[in-house]
Amino acid sequence: MSEDIRELAFDTETTGLHHLEGDRVIEIGAVEMINHIPTGRTFRTLINPKRSVSEDTVRITGITDDDLKDAPYFEHPSVVDAFLEFMGDAILVAHNAGFDRNFLNMELEKCGRAPIPTDRWIDTAMMARKKYPGAPANLDALCRRFEISLESRTFHGALLDSQLLASVYLELLGGRAHAFTFESEEELSRSERKRSARQRPEPLQSFILEEERAAHAAFVDSLGDDAIWKKVG
User: I want to staple 71 with a disulfide (CB 3.0 to 4.6 A). Which of 26, 46, 55, 170 is the partner?
Assistant: First the structure.
């Protein structure tokens, strides 16, 4: 039996675009997938970057310096240890993975942790460019292509973008977005019951022979008046 494939759809938000010029991570989000299907387990934390957030970041993410002043630093166990434990040996799936990899590894190295090697990353932007050459490959464009709702995306956020990315990733693998759900088990159970309750527009043709029907009726009569078939039939 083959082992399950564990992956994390992963995203970061940062103070700016340049990890080599002092920009830092301000938010991490991740969605666990087993065999390409979300399990419902997620990780998300804000991070104090020890510096100001750029105006562009505030405009894109809605995250301000005030939002981060009481957040833990990356090296705090509630961030680095908690994330590494959540990540385990999973593959990281990211859009423009080089950007997220550079920032994450920079933060890991700053607190004495080993970087995540390149072979543990999957880049969905690269997948999209290969599958749809010449077409827009940003996350919004791919969501529109696959009819994945962007209604709740007023701002970019690491966890929301990870959830959208998980759906996009399934589509890029050749799956169908409706197979990806972030509903609770109770909600999923209700929706499954609704689908199972749908009736055929016309009953299927019966292939029971008349002699078979008569034999069954005789058998039921032989069971007496308390036979369950007589009560529900």
Answer: 46
CATH of residue 181's domain is 3.30.420.10
Helix 124-131 × helix 97-110 angle, to 10°:
170
The string of pLDDT tens digits covering residues 173-203 is 997 544 444 554 444 444 444 444 444 455 5
Residue 134 resides in a domain: yes
Active site residue 216: no
Asked whether residue 231 is domain-assigned, the answer is no
Pair of tokens at residue 230: 């007589």
Mean pLDDT of the chain: 85
CA angle 99, 101, 106 (to 5 degrees): 100
Catalytic residue among 19, 156, 178, 216: 156
Helix then strand count (H, E) for the chain reads 10, 5
Tokens of residue 43, six digits: 């990780």
Question: Does residue 195 lie within any of the structural domains?
Answer: no
In a domain, 218, yes or no: no
Please give the structure tokens belonging to residue 168.
Answer: 């996009």
Q: Is the pLDDT of residue 147 over 70?
A: yes
**pTM for this prediction:** 0.74
The whole-number average pLDDT for the span 123-128 is: 98
